[in-house]
Amino acid sequence: MTGRLARAAPYALLLAVAGALYAAALRIEYIGPAERIGPDFWPRAILGLLAAVCVYEIAKSFLAAGARSTGGMLQHFLDEATGAEGEGAQRPSFARLALAVAATLGYVMLVPVLGFFLATAAYLAGFIALGGYRRWGVVAACSLGGSLATVVVFMKVVYVSLPLGMGPFRLLSIALLQVLGVR
Asked: Rounded to whole angstroms, how far apart are CA atoms 85 and 80?
């Protein structure tokens, strides 16, 4: 039982912090157009999601049978910090790290040229492949779907303008936004 309490404790603390911050976020006042999300929405939404993850991890700590299955996200980071390794853990690959950094720098440089949608799809596909996943249909679906979902969230929900790209890439981005109904 003490092991389960120890695994749940960081999430309980994080849940309490999220609750306190949510109470503070409730004091954010915004009066604006009804069809727009105000600045009060995002802190509350993020803290609500954080609280949901904490509740899930706390429940998993008490309901799951084995210590391996109840480690959760924080346990992974604690294991890394202390040098503990689980079964089948791989050693860090500095070549993959260098490729990930190069991919991120390439992404930053290519977003203005390719536009947000295409550059993000390529970046996601590259990272999935870099992680070792080789089912290319799934990689394509995840990268295109993830990029499309990000465009929808940023442009239709949060109202953030994204780079459209240059030349034919700009035309593709504009066509995509028209299909999505973004003006």
From this structure: 7
